[in-house]
Amino acid sequence: MENVFRDYGRFENDSNNRIICFNVTRTYFYIERPSLYECVRKYWRLNGERAKKAEYVFAISSGYIVGVFKPTHWFLTDSNEYVGRWEFEGVEISDSPYLHMDISHLVGKRQNPVSYINM
Prior knowledge:
The protein is 16% helix and 29% strand.
């Protein structure tokens, strides 16, 4: 796949923000859901009490930050297909300075699509 990202620099958490990163590469690139927000907000296996402490949610694709969200509410899904998984509601921060930055040095290639930074 051709690298579609410009060099926006490397993400460093200089502000010590509490961040959850969700790898959305498959759902994002294959357009499995109608929007980036829908790709990132639903059906995650995680510790909900830990997630509630997050200040930001990053949508990650191919090691880059493709979306930044401010979560306002975390809850267990009511979907019968994804029992025990978590969702959040939040606001997209479309002018975030973190957008498009390389974060691969922190999240790397992991099997788990959920990564925590400073949590």
